[in-house]
Each structure stands twice: as C-alpha cells, then as structure tokens.
Amino acid sequence: MNIPNTTFQDLRTRVTQKFRGSPVAIFSLMVIVVYAIAAVMVMLGLVANDFDARVGEKFMSPNATSWLGTDRLGRDILSRIVYANKIAFIVGLVTATLSVLLGTLLGALSGFFGGWVDAFIVWLYSTVESIPYLLLLIAISYILGAGLSGVYLAFVLTFWVGPCRIIRGEVLKLKEAEFVIAARAMGYGPMRILFRHIVPNTLHLALVNFTLIFVAAIKSEVILSYLGLGVQGEPSWGTMIDQARAELVNGFFWQIGGATVAMFLLVLAFNIATDTLQQALDPRQTR
Amino acid sequence: MSTLSEVAPAPILSIRDLSIELRNGGSKQLATKGVGLDLCQGEVLGLVGESGCGKTLTCKAIMGLLPEGVGRVQTGEILFSGHDLTRANEPTMRTFRGNTLSMIFQNPLNALNPVLTIGEQLSEVLATHTTLKRSEIYQEALHMLRRVGMPDAARRMRAYPHELSGGMRQRVVIAMALLMEPDVILADEPTTALDVTVQAQILKLLKSFQRNHNSAILLVTHDFGVIADMCDRVAVMYAGRIIETGTVEAIFDHPSHPYTAKLLEAMPRGRPVPRGELSVIPGRVPSNPDDLSGCKFAPRCERVQKACHRTEPRLKRVREGSTRIDPHLVSCFIAFEDRDEVTHVIE
Amino acid sequence: MIQIILKRILQGVPTVFGVTLITFLLFNVAGGDPVSLYLGKSANPKEIELMKKEYGLDQPLVSQYTDFLEEIVTFDFGKSFRTRDPVADMLIDRIGPSLSLTIPSLILITMIGVGLALISTYYRGRLFDRMLIFTAVTGMSISFLVYIVVGQYFLAFEFGLFEIYGYRDSDESRWSYLALPILIMTTVGVGYDSRYYRAVMLEERQAAYILTAHAKGLSDHRIMLRHILSNALIPIISRVMISVPFLVTGSLLLESFFGIPGTGSLLLESLMSGDLPVIKAFTVLVSILFVLSNIITDLLYIWADPRVRMQ
Amino acid sequence: MVAFGLIAACKAENPAFKDKKILEFAIESKVASLDPIHAATSYDHWGTAPVYDTLLQYNYLERPSRLEPNLVTKLPTISEDGLTYSFELKPGILFHDDPCFAGGSGRELIAEDVIFSIKRMANLTLRPKGWWIYNDRIVGFDTYKDRQRNRPAGAPFNYDESVEGLRVTGRYTFDLVLKRPYPQLLSVLAMPYTSIVAREATEAYPEDFHRHAVGTGPFILDRWSAGTELVYSKNPKYRPELYPGATFAELGDEEAGLLRNAGAKLPLLDGIVIHIIDASQPRWLKFRVGDLHFTTVPTEFHDAVFTDDSQLRPNFQAQNISMYKVALLDFIYRGFNMNDPIYGGVQGKPIRQAISMAIDHAEFNDAFYNNTAIVYDGPIPPGLSGHPNNPISPYRGPRLSLAKALLKKAGYPDGKGLPPLYYETAIGGNLREQSEMLTRQLAEIGITLQTTFNHFPELSDKLHRNKAQFFGIAWNSDYPDAENNLAMFYGPNAGGMNHFHYQNPAYDALYRRASTMIDSPTRTRLYEDMRDIIIEDVPAIGALARTRIYLWNPTLKSMKPSETWYGWLKYLDVERR
Question: Of the candidates D126, D460, D470, which has an alpha carbon nearest to the alpha carbon of residue C41?
C-alpha cells in the first residue's frame, strides 16, 4: 500500500468517514463489538458459566431451556458456543497481537538498519515462508503438543511473516521521508528515530495485519482441532465443529450448525471491517 | 440570445451552465458551477486556473469520462455535433471520442499502457474508428508518428512506452489524439510534465496541426506564457467558476478580476512558470466553495468589500478589451465599482 | 538469461538451507521420540536403544544434521519409519493423485476467478459486482472443514451426485472420484481469488492509460480484455505461481476426507505417526520447489512485462 | 456444479468384477506392511490374513472360539514336561505361484519353511514387531539372536545356523522345544506374526518383501495401491478345505444362514477388495450406500444406529441389515504412574481408590458406547478365565461420599492440597469428550484433571519413559488368555508393557507361578488372586470392554465375524455382481 504524505490524523479521518459511509461496515463493527462484549462477559463469569455442566439428556433437540439443544455429554450447546467465543477472542487477540508485535519489530529493524540485520531477517522470513503454512503450523503444534499454548506459539511463529514483510517495506520507504531526515538533522539517535518517528507511521498497516491475522487464527484453529491439535479442556468452535462432524450423520446438526454460524458471523464481520479499513487506507482501491 | 452572437461564428463546442457534482463518501459538492464556454472552429481557447479549480473535470465532462460513481453532471449541457454530450449514451460518445473529439492528457508516461507497444496503441484508434485494413492502419499510424516528429518512427512502432523519453511519449499521446484529425482537441496541460525546450517543440507541433486542420483546441494550462503563445481567447477559472473571459489581448492588457490580475502579476510575461508556482496568492482555494456565501475569492482578495461577502457576482461585460464578437466578461463587483454600466449578462 | 537463472538459484540456496535447519530443529531436537511406536506395544528399553542406534538417533546432533544434509544433496532420503519404503518412491507414488486434484482446481480457480473479476470490474458497483463480493466474503468466512463435511454428506451421500470416497488410478474412474474434491477446492479458492483479481483490475481501471483508452473511443471489451487484462497479467501470474509449490503438497484435509492417496494425506499420516524421514524430505522438497517457482515467476515476468524485460 | 455432477455420474464400476463374487469392505487405517512379522495391528491382520496361513486357526462357527489345526494335520502332541511340541504339516499345501519359485509355480510347503519363518523373528534388521513372542521361550533362540545381532557389519543374517529348540524331524514334521512351559504357545501359533512364508520370496524381494505377499492362503494379492485399497483374487490351488458343518454351530447359526454352505470348498469368494478409509464419516456413508458389504460401527455413529436400549433402529431393520456383536478382549483403563510421589506407591493408594470411586464407567458406556460396552472390575476382560461376571471391586464408582471420606482420611479433604492430576491420552475419535467427562467426574471429589492429548508415538514414548502421571489407553489381548493382561503388572516388564512401573513381589511370585501353567481351576484361582491384588492396589482403574458391532448389507452371506483372528474371510459369500 502506498499512502503518500498522509498524516496519521488524515488516516483516522478517512477511516471514520469510510465506516460512516457504509451501513454494512457499521453493522460489521457492531457484530464485533457484540462478540467482544460477550467474550468479556464470559471472562467475568457473567454468562455461559454452565458450559461444562450436564443440563439434560444427551443430544436433546432445541427446547425452552437449551435453545440449541445439548451435546453428547448433555451440555448446553448455546452456552458452549458463547463460551467458545471467548476462546476465539483470546486466540485471535493473543495471536494477532504477538504476531504483529514480533513482525513489526523485526520488520522495522530490518528495514531501518539494513546490512546484515536485514539480510538475516529477510532470510528468516523467506525461509519460514517457503514452508507450507499448514505444514509448519501442524509441525510446531505437533511438537509443542496439543493445547492452547501450543496453538499460540504455532500461530505466532507462522503468522509474523506477513506484518514483518510489509512493515519492512514501509520502513524502507519512510526512512527517506523528509520528517525522518529532519529528525536525523536534529541529532536524534537511531532507536528514537525508528520507534518514535517511523514506526508510529506504520500503525495503520499493523492494524490491517492485526485483523487479517485475527481471522486467520480463528479459522486455522478449526483445522488444528480437526487434527486433534486445537484447544483442549474448553470448548472452541473448532473443537465443536470437529466433534459435531460425526453427529451430522446421526441427524444432530445443532452443534455443527450453531458453531459454524457463530464463527461465520464473526469472521464475516472481521472480513468486512478489514476490507473497509483497507479501502480507507488505500484510496486507490475502490473496492 | 444577444445580437452579438449573431455576428460571432457558430461555436463547434458549446458548454452551457455546466455544474459537476462530486461525491466523496456520503458528502456531495459542486466542483464546477454554471460554467459556460464556447469554442469555435480554428480557435485556441486557453482555460487557466489553479490546480483543483475544475479545469480537468470540465474536460473530462466533455469527454463523458467523469470518474464513475464520483463525478456527475448535475445541470447544464455540452453541445457538440448536434448532440448534448451530457445526455449522449456510451456508444454515441464512443463514436466521438478519439475521432472528432480527442483529448491529450497531462502525464505522458501514465497516459500510455505500459504493456502494449506504441504501434498497437496508435493502431487501435484507427481500428476503432475506420474500416481500414491492417496494413493501411499501420501506414497511417506510422505516418502520424512521423508527423509528430518522432525520430526513427518505424522502430518506435514496436517499442514500449518506458523505452521512450518523456517528450517522445507526449508526441505519441499527441499522435494518438490527432490520428483522426479531430475537430476539437482538449489538451489538458500537455506540457507541464516536460522540460522547457521540449515544451516549446510540443506546443509548436500542436499549433501547426491546429492551423493545418483548422481544428479547435481547448488548452488547459496555468501558464500564461503558453496562453500568450498559443491562444486566441482565455477563460480564467476559480473555485469551479469562470470568473473572467476574453481575448488574450483583453485579459493581458486589462485584467479586470483581482484574481486574474494577481495571476498575471505573479508571472512576469514571457517567462514560463514551473508547475505549482501559481499559488503565490496567500490563502487557499476554499475546499467547498458552496459553503461560502458571496464571491468565492473574497477571503483571499486584497480589495474585498462588504458586498463581496453577501452575494456572488455574476459575469458581466466590461468595456476594456471587448470586441464585437469577443466580449470581455468578468464576475467581480469591484471591476464595476467606478461605473455602473451593465452591458450584458451571461449566466 | 542463464546468468540470471544461475544467480537466482544461488540466491535460493540460503533459503533451502534455512528450511533444512528449521526442519531439523523442529523434528530432531524439539520433537519427541518416534522409536517406541515402531517396536509395538510390547517394546522394552533395550530394543528401543537398539533401534535408535540403527537409525543414528543416538548420534550427536551435529552429525545427525550433516547426515540429513547429505541425504538432501544426494536426494536419497532413506526409508520411511512407518512403511519401510524408500521415501523417494513414496513421494513419487503419491504425487500423481495430488496433481490430478490440484492442477484442475488451480486452472478452474484461475479461469473462473479471472472471469468473474473481469465481469465484476466491468459492472463495478452494480448488482453483479455487489453479489460477487458478498458471496466471496461470505464464502471466505466459512470454515473449510464445514465445506468438506457438509459437501460430502449432502452432495455425495444424501443427493448421490458424487462418489463419497475413494480413488482409482485409471483415466475413466479417476475423475468421478475427484469431481467433488475439485468442486470444493474450486469453490473455496474462487472466493479468494476472484476478490483479489477484482481488486487488481479495479486498480488497473483507475490507471491514467485506461482514461486515455476511453478517450480514444475504444470499446469496453477491448479496454477490459486488451488493456486491463494484459496489465493484470502480472499479478495473476504471481498468484498462480505462488500456488505452484502447493500443487505438489496436495490438500491435507480434502485428501484425507475423500481418500485420495496424494501427498497431502501422506504428509498427514506421516505427521500423525512421527514418520520423520518422510516429513523432512517433504518439507525440503517443497521449499526447493518454492525457490524454483520463484525463479520461474521471474522469468514469466520478463515475458509478461516489457518493463522488466528491459532491465 | 451440474457439470461436476455429470462427471461423477459415470460411476466407477470395475468391469473385471462383473458376474464375480467380490467382497468389499473398509478398514480405517493404512496397512503398513504385509510381512507377517510386522503384523502388529488389526489392520495389518486384515491385510495379511487372506494371503498367509498360520499353523493353527480358530473354528469359524464355534463360540467361544476354539483353536483347531490349519496347516497341520492335528493339534501338536506335547511332551510330559510341557516343553516339546511336535507338529505334522498337511502334505500337498502349495505356495502361491510366483516368479520367485523355480518355474514360477508355487512349491510345496515343508517343515523347513516353518523353522525359517520362526527364525526371521530373530533377525532384528527386519525389525520384527512380534519379536517378543519367542523371546526367552525357545531353547537356543535367544543366543542365536544375540550371535546374529553381533555378526560382523555387512554379513548376511545366517538362517542356516541351527537352533537347538527348532528341530526338523521329517519333510512334514518338526518339534519346538521350550526353555520352560509356555501354555500360550498354541494361541501364539494362530497369531498372524507366526504365518508361514517362503524363503525364496524373501530372498527374491529383499527390499520390498513387505509388499510382495507370497503365502499359502486362500487368496492371492493382486494389487496394493498405497493407501487406498488392497485387491485379492481367489487362490485356485488352495488346498481342499471345507466349510464347517453343523457340529460346531451355535444356536441361531442355522437361521442366520451360516450352515447353507456347509461342506463347500473354500474359499467361497472370487475376490476381495479392502478399502482403506481413515475418516469415519466416508467409511460409514459408503457402507450406507451399499458400496461396502460390511462395516463395524464407529462409536461416533452409535446414535445413528441404535436406539437407547442398543437395538438396531427400524430403518436399518427395514433394509435387512444384519448385526453381530463381537465382545472384544478389551481392557480400557486409566492407569497411574506408580512412581509418582503423590498419586503413586503406597502413600497414593487411598487417593487412587478415591479416584476409582469417582469414575462412573456406566456414564461413559452410555455416552460413548450406547451401552454396548461391558463394565467390569480388574484387568481380565470378559470371556477369559479369571474374569468377574459381577461387580466385585469395593472401589467401583460412582461412590462419591466414600471417595470423599477416603480423601479426607488421606489428608486431602475435598481434594485440598492435592496438585492437579495430569492425564495423558491420545488424539482422535471422541477422546476429547471422554476426557471432558472424566474431568467433570473427578471434579466432583475436588480433584483437578489436566489433560494432555498426544499423538500415539508421543503417548507410547511417555509411557515407556515413565513420564505419564495418569493415562488412559486400551489394551487388546494378543491371545485369549488372561496371562497376556496380567503380564502388564509384572515387575520385570516395567518400562515395557508394564506402563505403571508397578512393583509388587507377591504379585510377581503369583505371576511367575501361573505363567507356566496350562488352563486349570488352580491357574484360574491364581489369576483371580492377581486380579484382586490389582483391584485393591489400583495401579489401573478399570475397566470397559468394547463390543465391536458388525453390520452387513443383505448381499453378504454366511457372516460370523470374530476379532480373535482374521482368517475367516474365506468362509464369506456374497451375491454375484
């Protein structure tokens, strides 16, 4: 993305304008907010506390007490879906934050200092990139064992490449910008220039990458769950879909349907938000 | 219609009360308001003004190429060859474009498709508008390339745009525009991207073509030097409005709008001004002129009066520089403050 | 030309080297010990030690690594822990079915994706365009696993349109087994690709030379097909070429769900059973392919873009 | 999509199968090797059984399964001291035709072949998975193995060296001499590991004998497509063997049509196609559309098949689908690391007992097996002597108040002060949900369970290295003798099959005594004593025995499945295509 001579203020205005102009984008933001609130409520223990409790017979159809029926262990599916939302948010947030931080740090150092630092970091990410993403993901989580921490690490070690590459490119460009040259003329140290002057100007790119990775993490968790490597001990949409695969044949589609729809809405909202964000940040694209 | 128009030659392109609306996200604004221009056969009309005043948009509106979903003709008409171009459908527009009505764009590098050869980009104009055979098309295109002064033209036919220098690219762009010997050429700052010596050559080329074919040129520029060399008449635009129009002599000798005067002051005659230097007048062009009541130039005007802020002045005829066929019009209260003579009003 | 190619190949060497290092670190250093599996459930410590010795797993790490490098250079990856077949043979056996799945899918995805993008660019902002974007974003938001499970259950089982599972390596029957996996892969892929190509083309559409083309009075068809498409060719080539190494890796999920004996299912089996020789060989081969396809991409650029050709 | 449908509509019917009796079924995992000495899993057994023969086999109809001679004329004569077993092969048994034999035509099976096949178990370069069955059993076998192991590098394995306990006494006769009594030997000789192979074949295909199956069995391997299917055709030169008659039949066999082929020459089929389908959904769907003749019911699909009282649902009955339940020699348990400072040893005994009382196996049975499994106490599965038919354990759950009392007495009231219990289990199927249920049950008495899911190699590695604190796996008996299960708690087996690292001298003494005895009330009493020690000490909390449920479409005839052995495909019959 090429955003010539725009201040961060301009970007913020453009983003707000873009979102205001699109009802779909506003709707997507609302969905994200609702999900986020639900996730916080789960964390505070206000809702879905009974996700692990036996509330009835196994495989009950939707009824007055269990709106989406029960699973094999007689647990309330709706509670589990809501609870899994928390997991999705944690997985998404942790993965996206760490990946973007790591990617930005390495990308910034690489672009700014050049030389062997750059050579090393470029080598590192082109190496990681040339291993198929799913293979790397599975290999890492296989070695770390199933479970949440393995999932995080596998995701971060796989996903940092994207932001790193982009931030590096942007830093390379900004390095020559007038305000950077001015800062140099003021005699500021390289670290101050890099992290006070250059990196803040790449925040919009970090934001877009953040949303992209958030979605990628939620979707990849399903695949890992299918392979038995996903979240353990707590319900996640991935484990629910994986569990419910077999139930489709039995004629119980509440679990797979519910988890799919729940996940679909959040991912859709994030996709739309990301799109809107990208449009606002890169006005050349009128998507 | 006044009696004057009966004497003047019939315009080949006539713009009446053209208002172009721009949409940006949810907000709308008028980029031009009530623009009126007449272009006669064999005439070069200069359109001058700061960047963003609506010159290029006006040209695009004539071509029917306003950015889709963003720009729209709100009111007015553009008469050409018996059609109102603001209402003409795409197929009709296509028969005009590149044929009897052509346009030369500012930046010659961007105006050429980087992955097609010069030859193909020239030939496709002929392939679209004529029924010539391939070999004839090739000959025609090559001939035109030679006419615009392209050295080694036969070889250049197979070249890609990036293999040519800026001046040569602009020659290609001009060759494309001239291929069909159009009646009207819209030249949108055809030389601003080029260096001084090349500028002169390109302008000479345009001028000689115009003379030979008796074409009409609407020359968009902000360089009064170019105007002086090329044009018969001038229209000055500010904030989407024509604020002064008249013959080159009238404008240069009797600039009646403070804005025009400032522009001329800023540029000693005869010396070309590099792009961007026009904005020596303090202040900025209003971002949304319609938010401003009264004269749009008032905030920057040194001679501003109370009345200027109340109502927007309309174009009126001034005596100095007006001829029988080419009236000198200006929209400014102070231009008339000494005399309350109102001769003619053009909306 | 040959110099360019040689130079690019040399530039790829550090990447391949990096992949070997990562692979080695992942599996030999961080990974668990696969040996006990292969001795069966009645293994005893003595037998475990013996087998480690046999496979060189008791050697110092450095010499294990140099052995691994030697395997790569000689393209002799030894034998699978699990099946005892030479790894090279296993990969060769499995590559055919994977390619029969991935190549038609890639071709369909690209053709449909570019086609839809062209139509969408032509009708930008109108109903077709909005529908396409909506469908693509919706499609992208559904888990791949759901496509597979639901596709297999409804299309193949309930409606009986497709074979449920299996593969037979003969020209007549192969496609009847592959039809549904290819359909699923294409459906998912088209969503992503048409959106991407559309963005690319819309960007081209904004270019100044497109305005010139319009000003010349060219027809929309000519502008779409000759001017926009030829410029979009470069991003299209990039996108297609990026996918090329993944043609060989097949599809982990599709292959295991539909019983296609391709490299994807081989990889999954190997990962699940800790079959290190196969995993390592596979990873390194794919990274080599990745480097090679990058080189080919560069060469294609030269063909597609006169600007690159000059340099 | 229509176009795709059209492509798919030309269904892949194999013309070679026309008018033939071809059996098709699916197994859920790849066959890794068709070399019998590698045949460790039931999938390998399915793959090898059609091609190879063992000396002994089980009677097809009789239940409980009883050994009967297969390649031999009769069961072996056993010397007084129980150490020498004498066998006599049936004459005229031919190996399959194969280029490895002179003239390409299979030669006759002789006693040397049996001895050769046993010696292959000593060849560690072949990595025999069944190495343990002769380990420390046959006179001279272990020294032979050691000698060969230490042979100079590059030297070939010497099969010609004689072993004292492996004696050829004639063209068709041979003796096996044991170091000490090994009453399980007969069962072992019906295991696929001990299938008889031809030396010519192993030498002709040194690198890929595991893909070139050349045996004496009822079917010949035509094709083995990696990972997709195994295709067999009838062996036209199969020795004259007949379908068993009514003498062996159980009640109901006749009604089930199992005697219709009595006296017919085997095999009845023209060919077999074994599909390999690892995912359960497609395997099940393929059976439901009739592409497969029979299937086992994946546990996830029990609800689709059974009503809550484990009867077939009406739609299956309407389709004339038949069902047969095979009780598995199955021991599904949760085991402890007995070396653990808190949960292991003597100090951990009350905690283990409390945990045992917290676990409700009936709930597992209901949720995961639709009550088709059998819950029992101790390590001896149903059908074997020593198995308790009634609940006998005072620690069988759910007894929550007693469990809490025990914990309190041990100093951990309501689990307070107890560190979390780390549970190791495998990945796959519904093991995740199982662990969730276990977590919930243990939480009732205040014990926190933290589960780690492992790939099978990892799990077995942890078990071998004594790294698993608490673990859940299943043990399938290798042969129908409780000795196999009881060996899991024998001290010297620690680090091997004794995953618990359980050490109890009294138990070991009982085991040593019982392991050399043949089946007798005395031995059963010893088994029961050992069983009760395990129930009291709780190194393992048990147990469930799954019932494998076979369903078959009406096109399949004379089906009486068993998982004690897999050689019974030769008795099956299907409708012609």
Answer: D460
Amino acid at site D167: R
Three-point CA angle D174, D176, D180, nearest 5°: 160
Q: Does B160 touch chain C (CB under 8 A)?
A: yes
The answer to whether position A98 is within a domain reads yes
A65 falls within a domain: no
What is the CB neighbour count within 10 angstroms for residue D549? 23
Name which of C124, C209, C233 is nearest B113 (Cβ-Cβ): C209
Which segments of B194-341 does DSSP mark as H helices, in order? 196-213, 224-230, 248-253, 258-266, 306-310
- Chains D and B, touching by 3 or more CB pairs within 8 angstroms: no
**Residue D345 backbone class (left: φ over 0; alpha: ψ -120 to 50; beta: rest):** left
CB-CB contact of D507 with D533 (8 Å): yes
- C-alpha–C-alpha distance, residues A88 and A94, integer Å: 10
- Asked if C176 lies within 8 A of D475 by C-beta distance, the reply is no
Selected residues 290-309 of chain D with any CB under 8 Å from a CB in chain A: 298, 300-301, 303-304
Chains adjacent to A (≥3 CB pairs closer than 8 angstroms): B, C, D
What are C11-55's pLDDT values in tens digits?
A: 888 888 888 888 888 777 666 566 655 555 555 666 667 667 766
Whole-number Å distance between alpha carbons of A134 and A148: 17
Q: How far is B339 from chain C (nearest CA, A)?
A: 46
As averages over each run of 10 residues, the pLDDT of chain D (577 residues) reads 50 68 90 88 91 95 90 94 94 94 92 96 86 89 90 87 94 95 92 94 90 94 83 94 88 89 92 89 89 89 80 89 90 94 92 95 89 92 91 92 93 91 85 90 92 79 84 89 93 87 95 90 95 96 91 93 92 91
* Residue A64 falls inside a structural domain: no
The count of structural domains within chain A is 1
Question: Using a CB-CB distance cutoff of 8 angstroms, which residues of chain C are in contact with residue B114?
Answer: 209, 231, 305-307
For chain B, what is the radius of gyration of the CA atoms?
21
| Domain of residue A187, CATH code | 1.10.3720.10
Peptide bond into B289 cis (omega under 30): no
Contact at 8 Å (CB) between C78 and C87? yes
Alpha helices in D120-234 (DSSP H): 141-149, 185-188, 199-204
Q: List chain A residues with CB under 8 Å of C140.
A: 267, 271
Cβ atoms D328, D563 nearer than 8 A: yes
Instruction: Note whether residue A167 is domain-resident.
Output: yes
Alpha helices in chain C (DSSP H): 2-24, 35-38, 45-54, 61-74, 87-122, 127-140, 144-150, 171-205, 208-215, 220-222, 229-249, 252-258, 263-273, 276-304, 306-310
CA–CA distance from C187 to each of C112, C250, C265, C300, D251 (Å)?
10, 16, 21, 27, 55
Domain extent at residue A115: 8-48+73-285
| Residue B322 backbone phi and psi in degrees, to 5 | -75, 140
- Rounded Cα distance between D175 and D115, Å, is 9
Q: Cα separation of D511 and D530, whole Å?
A: 7
A185's tokens: 């003329």
Instruction: Calculate helix-pair angle for B166-178, B196-213, nearest 10 degrees.
Output: 10
Mutate to test the interface with D, among C52, C81, C82, C83 (most CBs of D within 10 A): C83
| pTM listed for this prediction | 0.82
Residues B65, C219: C-beta atoms closer than 8 Å: no
C93 CA: distance to closest CA in chain D (Å)? 8
Chain A: give the shortest CA distance to residue C290, in Å.
Answer: 6
Using a CB cutoff of 8 Å and minimum separation of 24, what contacts does B144-152 make? B144/B175, B144/B178, B144/B179, B145/B118, B145/B171, B145/B172, B145/B175, B147/B175, B147/B178, B147/B209, B148/B172, B148/B174, B148/B175, B148/B178, B148/B205, B149/B201, B149/B205, B150/B175
